[in-house]
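INFO worker-7 received task bundle
INFO bundle size: 2
INFO processing item 0
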Amino acid sequence: MKLGEEAAEYVSAKFIKPIKLEFEKVYFPYLLINKKRYAGLYWTNTKKHDKMDTKGIETVRRDNCILVQNVIETVLHKILIDRDIDAAQ
């Protein structure tokens, strides 16, 4: 997180005032599927991740059935939390 804050300060110094880049979130690992479609473990402290955050993926979309949501949620858990790609297949 410290590295992200330092990067924000460095980049902000290059911008013309009053533009400032703010450090917002840390995701690790981070799975970027497409524009506005991603999943990752959201961290606010260095001890343990807070939650698995998903955006635009079938787990958060309301136009999919519950079975699809559960399968995608399980696969993401295997990939992001367990870090077991083979089990996700």
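INFO item 0 finished
INFO processing item 1
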Amino acid sequence: MSEALDKLEQKQIQNKIEHETAIEQVKSTKRQKRELKRRKWVDWNTQDEQAGGTKRAAFDPANRVKRKKCAMLLSYCGAKYFGMQRNPGMQTIEEELFKAMLKHKWITEESFEAAQAACFQRAARTDKGVSAARQVCSIKLPDSVDIKALNEDLPEEIRVFGVERVTKGFNAKDQCNARTYTYTLPSVAFADCTEKHDFENYRTEAAHLEN
């Protein structure tokens, strides 16, 4: 009888410990969520400088730049790029675009590191060497943006032509209802391999193409 009571008491103690551990885990999760929410309102780079590197000063939410969903129209020549989508260690269209937008404060450092923070989406993802005449992207941007200044800091192969406000739920990929692709081949690809042609300019005679 005494042994059974001891086992029951030990089990109750174990259950109590497990219950307290579960409660502490829940509290820890809530603290982490509060910390993540607080970080969204803090500019760590400037606050560390103001606090002398010892204590982070509070950030005034009124100084935060409000950004709203926009549609961006751009074009690019992808001949020397490894596609549009960002890829670590590779030269891509989005990498150049995001670097320029960060420089002009169109996006935050958080958005530069994680594009989803700015709700970024492109209508179509192009591969290595592929160009786009009218690419549309959706992204959260400030109310006032200087397109001319941004283009001056973009490589000559990339140009932004317009930015327009759109509805909050707009998504360039999901709401794209058509995509047009054009495949361009050098005419020399149709040349007779037994004849001489102007391979330097990638051209062959029009008469040969007609035949």
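INFO item 1 finished
INFO post-check item 1: The chain has a mean pLDDT of 81.
INFO post-check item 1: The longest strand covers residues 132-142.
INFO worker-7 idle
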